[in-house]
Design a protein that fits this description.
Elements: H1 3-29, H2 35-47, H3 52-59, H4 63-75, E1 79-83, E2 91-95, H5 97-120, H6 125-154
Helix pairs in contact: 2-4, 2-5, 3-4
């Protein structure tokens, strides 16, 4: 593949990353939660009443990392723990009314911003969303294959200058 094209693609991804991270900090901080807490709340909203294990898997986080985030959200009244109706050993996470209000505020702010972004695009919004979803899927596949190569090279065999 053309190195110049790859470098341009990477440069644009870095710029997009900085813009998104900046936007996340601005819009979530004004709602009283950190970026990690924001992602956690929105995931609970999306999943319904997930267990902590289900939430950790969805977010791609270690359980211990997620535990600290969840504990912080419980302490500030955004999440609550509930026993599962069918298996009392399983603890489910649920949004409190305050957590629901926080999600609504975050969603409304982000919907307005990203609605404006899609309006600024020269392509139809459906096409942009489809290409972006394809980019995410390709990134997941590329990372999965990369980690396989890295684990092989780290276990003794050097490959491609590693």
């Amino acid at each position: 593949m053309d190195v110049k094209l790859l470098r341009e693609f990477r440069k644009n991804l870095r710029q997009l990353e900085r813009l998104i991270v900046g936007q996340l900090r601005e819009d979530t901080c004004c709602h009283g939660v950190s970026v990690a807490q924001c992602h956690c709340l929105l995931a609970v909203e999306l999943l319904g009443r997930p267990s902590q294990n289900e939430l950790a898997e969805h977010l791609g986080l270690e359980k211990s990392t997620l535990s600290r985030t969840v504990e912080g959200l419980v302490k500030i009244g955004q999440l609550e723990r509930q026993a599962d109706e069918s298996d009392r050993r399983i603890i489910r996470l649920a949004l409190t009314p305050e957590g629901g209000s926080t999600c609504t505020a975050i969603n409304e702010a982000n919907d307005a911003l990203y609605g404006r972004v899609l309006e600024e695009m020269n392509s139809p919004p459906e096409q942009v969303v489809a290409v972006f979803a394809e980019l995410v899927r390709a990134m997941v596949r590329a990372r999965e294959s990369r980690f396989t190569c890295l684990s092989t090279s780290l276990s003794g065999g050097k490959k491609d200058g590693m």
